[in-house]
Amino acid sequence: MAEAVQIRNLVKRFDSPDSPGQSVFAVRNASLEVAPGELVTLLGPSGCGKTTLLRMIAGFEEPTSGDILFGDRRMNDVAPNRRDAAMVFQSYAIFPHLSVYENVVFGLRLKKMPADEIQKRAERVMAITGLTHMANRSPNQLSGGQQQRVALARAIIMEPRVLLFDEPLSNLDAKLRDQMRVEIRELQQRLGITTLYVTHDQIEAMSISDRIVVMNGGVIEQIGTPREIYARPATRFVAEFIGKANFLKAIVLDGETIDVGGVKVRYVNQRQPGEQLTLVLRPEAIALSPDAGDFRATVKRAMFLGNIAEYLLEIEGVGEWLVDSPNPGESGLFQPGTRIYASPSKAALHAVE
Amino acid sequence: MLATARSQIRVLARDPILLALIAIIFAAILLFVVYPLIMVFIASLQDRGQWTLANYALIGERRLYRNALWNSLSVGALVGLIGVLIGYVAAFVLTRLNVPGKRLLHYLMIVPIISPPFVSAVSIVFLFGNNGLVTRQLLGLQDFSIYGFHGVVWSQIFTFAPIAYLSLRGVLASISPTLEDAALNIGASRWQVFWKVTFPLSLPGVASAFLVVFIESMADFGNPLVLAGAAFPMLAPQAYLEITGSFNLARGAMLSVILLLPSITAFAIQRYWIAKRQYVTVTGKPTASTSKVVSTPVKALLYASVLLFALIVLTFYAVIFIGAFTKVWGFDYTLTLDHFFYVFNVGLDTVKDTLIIALITTPVSGIFGMLVAFLVVRRVFPGRSALEFGSILSFAVPGTVVGIGYVLAFNQPPLLLTGTLTILVLCFVFRYVPVGIQSGIAVLRQIDPAIEEAAQNLGASALTTFRKVTLPLIAPAFFSALVYAFVRAMTAISAAIFLVSANWNLMTVQILNQVGSGRLGVAAAFSVVVIALVLVAVIIINAIVTRMTRHMTMVKF
């Protein structure tokens, strides 16, 4: 049942609404392979082309060029109602004139499946999604989270080849979002359906994905596991979009050392001496000390956030760094104006393009 | 462009039924909307098979035609002005002021829209005609004549002011009273607030209402035929007389082209120029707060004028009702059921014909309208805007022109339809579907397209989606399309009068014939039957649509 999804050199060009004759690329030359049963998120800021890409897979948008394959079958010319790629919509798109049960079994009834089989599947799916006791309710009597479950149940009851999510949690409040995120991931793993999931929320993407596809301006910037994307971002954009990042300008001295603002830092590399580098340094990979360390720094701003303290430091000869320091409750806060030392964790340095 | 069209067709071809449907709709609109119009143009440019402009030259040469044109234009303009004034006052009072009986007044304002087009004309004859109750019996006037310019204008005002009222009501209701509050708050006087804020905001709506009333007045056939009289020629009845009286198709066609031009111009201005200038501020919040712009005496004055208008409408209907039970109006006021016996004996076939035609027209027109709205809003295909334009074009075409066009277009094989039920149904469907299409489009634009995509995503074809999801969701528009189609089919006259035959006749035509032969009582009885049938139908349609969409009442969009 689970099926691989392949996207090859997919392009979507729109005619520009502002200047006729000109065109805008929503998706440029995107290629991606999703393994059977894998959950892949398409992550990026609004307007990056992630939803367009998903809608092309669902069949609601026509690719300008390139191929979409489910398994080894090319889907480009298959109508959306024959793709067997159930989608959970951002607005849920629940049929307001049908009851919860009628919504859930809508697709199976269209397939003319026998009534007892429909009944059986519906009972199972509604139990999984916690909708059993509200089968006869009208959708507008449901809360946002319950509507979300109806949309989910309606999609998974189809036992589709591919499951598509278009920002499914963006209309829920923060607590419910965390809970639904976990439920969706568990359900997806239990059912083993190949899943594509669009979101602009990096935490959501990090927490549920097998792999993440980071998109920007219609281009896929990087594909990787959450760990890879965070620890070894391919581009400056990825580093900034996933988590917080400091960027360090450095010059290569030799195969093991680089120069950052006059300070020698150990960084194993295969580059030519004299070459310029940009390095990513995550705020939590910087240790602070009142008496000793690699870089001399002055505290410009200090915020107590409970689990961490967030500092803005002026590093002498380098610039400003963001630093997240754990357990501030125990050690107390460095006050603005204090002169301290900052030492990057050497393993956390990573060069980007 | 061509590449886009090709790829759009390729997408559609995945749903062959949909593609076929679009092709059929295109063909139908070409055949039943555009082709008859072309035939009218051709006929107007020919004389015994020769191409000529001689017919048009007659406008300059013959006083009768010149007068008809001038009369129609001046009546249209005047009725437009007065109708908009009344409509504006009524809309303002009933949407913005806190006065008693708003609901009842609203219904009284709109009854003329759902009644036969010449109820007011017949009432005016009853009251002010040669044997009129007011003019003869009460005032004893001997040489007063209501026929001519003022008769037509009066009658049309009461027929068409409600249309202006309805459209201005929408405009005024969408202007948030907080704008007026804001202007008052920064020191404007009430007078200034109205002229500097409220009125300018509603101005595009006023212009639009004027043009709609102008179009309706130009196209009106019933009122002029009853009240214009021989000394006051107007275009629509004149075109009819040329064809049925002198069998001169070319001149009738020429007059109807002349009639068409101002209507189409007004329609184009209304649709492509004014419609873009509407300042509609839809916030989703109901504007329940009332205007503080009006001082108490002004409020009383405005309210009184609306009451007066409603009272006159009520009087007109009472007169028709009493007239239907009166032996010989003007001479013998004994009560009688004779006129109804006549209607249900001699006229029974006509009643049946009218009902059959209306009952076929209504569902066909309703579903066709929703389908076109669905395609125009939700599907991309080459010629989409042409389809939308073609399908609402007939709204701007006066019925007389349509009637003549159908006679010209469908009077020979293979499309020999004249004299049949089919031609009447086709004429009504294509003439009255634009209102359904427009309201369908308006409702559909407010519904999240994802709901229909979800249906498709779950395996529904385009037609299944339409049937199972779209149609129930646009039930309000569907309802109004059904009601409108039924009401129009029951009350149409201007196009239908060319298409009725011995086999298929209509009550409205009967009413006109009875008025023509002086049997006002029978005309009134027919009118009462039409109004009763329309009311019953509205109630039944309402019940059906409510049942069909029982969940809808609980759903908010």
UniProtKB/TrEMBL annotation, chain A:
Q: Which UniProt keywords apply?
A: ATP-binding, Cell membrane, Membrane, Nucleotide-binding, Translocase, Transport
- Signal peptide range: none
Q: What molecular function terms (GO) are annotated for this protein? A: ATP binding
* Upper classification of the organism: Bacteria, Pseudomonadati, Pseudomonadota, Alphaproteobacteria, Hyphomicrobiales
Indicate what this protein is called per its UniProt record: ABC transporter ATP-binding protein
PANTHER family recorded for this chain? Answer: MALTODEXTRIN IMPORT ATP-BINDING PROTEIN MSMX, TREHALOSE IMPORT ATP-BINDING PROTEIN SUGC
Recorded hits in Gene3D superfamilies, A to Z, give: 2.40.50.100, P-loop containing nucleotide triphosphate hydrolases (3.40.50.300)
* Matching InterPro entries: AAA+_ATPase, ABC_transporter-like_ATP-bd, ABC_transporter-like_CS, ABC_transpr_MalK/UgpC-like, Mo/tungstate-bd_C_term_dom, P-loop_NTPase, Transp-assoc_OB_typ2
Where does this protein come from, organism-wise?
A: Chelativorans composti
